[in-house]
Structure formats: structure tokens, C-alpha cells
Amino acid sequence: MSDQALKTTPLNAAHRALGARMVGFGGYDMPVQYEGVLAEHRWTREHAGLFDVSHMGQCRITGADAIQQFQRFVPGDYEILKAGKQKYSLLLNAEGGIMDDLMAGKPDHDGLYVVVNAGNKDADFAFLNANLAGDAKLTILDDRALLAIQGPEAAEVMAKHEPALAEMGFMDSARLMLFGVDCFVSRSGYTGEDGYEISVPDADAERVWNTILEDARVKPIGLGARDSLRLEAGLPLHGHDVDATTSPVEAALTFALSKSRKEAADFNGAERILKELAEGPSRVRIALHVKEGAPAREGAEIADMDGNVIGVITSGGPSPTLGRNIAMGYAPPAFAALGTELKVIVRGKPAAAEVVATPFVATRYYRKPKA
After folding, report:
1. C-alpha angle 246/82/161, rounded to 5°?
2. What is the pLDDT of residues 293-306, one digit of tens each?
3. How far is CA 168 from CA 81, 191, 200, 277, in A?
4. pLDDT grade for 4, boundaries at 50, 70 and 90
5. Confidence of residue 371 (pLDDT cuts 50, 70, 90)
């Protein structure tokens, strides 16, 4: 894709002023790194990293029928979700394949606030527009930027700007005035670290970005480190680890299937998904420690100990935190047990690998103490 064809976020000039190396991603001109992926990865793990994720799609689904209509296409129970909360879910096609993964929450009492992936947002919004019925209304928030601050010092940094943010727990969601503007804020992210995602009006994005960066604990972080962080957290990337052919059972994302929705079986693809839950899928997402050789990256084959190809790697690379190579991919369930010895084929050479649990690196989400 040519530079002329790439869209830009409201922070494009700010990234260039900071010396970011820009690349095309999801149709946008985005910063892949500033001082370097390894340094930025480590800074986020130790301090606080600020990410521009304004390329993601933001929307509201409102109206008396909003939740009932939304639930036709996702397997989570949003009827019982309390105001001030959000949850991860999956946008499913009629065959039970994952069209996208998303966050949907109730930051206020006006339906749902939803964030979808950049590369899928146009298709997602077209699908919802075509299929939402009753008085459910989709409003695309294409006039808002989205920032993510992640890391062990993120909460202290943000509490300086709004003390109430320190009281939020993991997956809490709120609509509030922050930096003098109307914001949607959730205590969430896609790095495995504690932190927040902050939706701000486009016109205020650069001012808010620069204000947060005034804190010495915060550095700008590019998409390169965001990818290595989410891999260490064992989080799937749509279009790579999951796609429209993958079911939630195959993807090991069954936590997104609410019990009540499974019992009702009233969502897209329920027949396939319930059958796979009962009988088992033909393949399942696994995590691997690659014990030798070069990193096993997307497209590398997975083989059994006899050399028979049984699957493929969908994400992989070095783990800066662990100092070893890690990967995710798909294989038959018979090879998914923890401790199973396998091989990965990298540049034609087999290398030893072992099935391990995710997350590769322990997550540090903040959960409020129970009363």
C-alpha cells in the first residue's frame, strides 16, 4: 500500500515529531517503533508505555433493542453486564467463525460502547448496519482517537490527572470528563499489563497525548512492542491467530461463551460451537516454547516427533521478558496437552518445541479487592 493510500490518525504529526519509524498497518500510517522494539517492550513492562490505537474502530449501539440485537452475533451475556463494566467478546458469522474480536461495555446507561479491530472495522460496521433490527442503532464514532497507557506505573500516572481512575478495576468502564473533554475510559488493554484505554475527541488527541508524555514515567511505544507484549500475554491477533474460519472452541476462547447463551443457543454459529464443545474440534490453538534455533514465526509448520506435519504457527518470536522463543499455532487436540514434545520447521530445519500454558508471562491486571 502506497503512503498516499494510507489513512492517518490525529497523532500522525506527533509521531513524526518524536522520530517514529512509520509503517502501514490496518490501512493506516502507524508508528512501529521510536527508540527500538526491545527497549520499548521493556519500558512498558517496567514503567508505562503510551500507545496510539486510534486506528481501531469505535462505535455506539443504542436503543431499547440494542443489547438483544447485539447478542444475536456474540456469545457473551450483555443483558446481565452491569453499567460501568465491559467484557471481551467475539463477532461471529453464521458458521460460528470469528469475524472479529472486540470489547463491548456499558460506560453509561446509553446502550453499548464497542471497540473493534482496525483491519476489520469497515466490514464489522457494514455487517452490523445490515443486520441490526428493531430500534437498535449503530453510530460510528469516527471523530474520536484512542490512546492506551500500559504498564505497572500507568495507574499512578493517570491518577495524577483524575484520582477516580485509581479506583477502577480491570474491565471497569466509564464515561467522564478527563483532560477537560468527554472521554470513554476503560481499565484494560492488550499487553497483559495494567493500564487504561482512553477515547478522546480527535481535536484534543494531540494535546492529551503530549500531556500524558510530560510524565517522566511514560514513553511513546510503537506497534512492534505492542505485538511482542500481546504475544507474551498469550493474546490472539485477529487475522493471524484467529479469523473468520476459526471457532471460539478451536481458538481456546471459550471463556467468552456465557453459560446462559450456551443454554439458549440463540447466537450465530451456536450449532457448530455447541457440537465442538461436546465432541471436540479438529484443531485447537496451542502455545509453544521453541527450545532451539531461530524463532518460529507465522507460517512455520508444526510436526510431531516422527516428523509428520500436524499444524502451523500463527504468531511467534523472541520473548524479551523470558529470553527465549515462543509461539502460538494450531494442532489436533491429541497434541495439545501441556508438556507434549513437538517440532517446528524453521527454514527447512526441525527444532524442538514443547506445549506450554498461556500466558507465557503472568498478566498484571488490577482487580479490586472483594468487599
Report:
1. 95
2. 999 999 999 999 99
3. 16, 18, 18, 34
4. low
5. low
Q: Collapse the DSSP code of 184 into the 3-class scheme (helix H, G, I; strand E, B; otherwise coil) and give the result.
A: strand
C-alpha cell of residue 273: 460451537
Q: What is the pLDDT of residue 171?
A: 98
Beta bridge partners of 313: 329
Q: What is the pLDDT of residue 369?
A: 86
* Section 237-264 average pLDDT: 98
Classified as helix, coil or strand, 327 is strand
> What amino acid is encoded at 307 in this protein?
G
What is the pTM (predicted TM-score) of this model? Answer: 0.96
The residue-averaged pLDDT of 44-73 equals: 98
- Of 182, 244, 164, 189, give the one whose Cα is nearest residue 49: 189
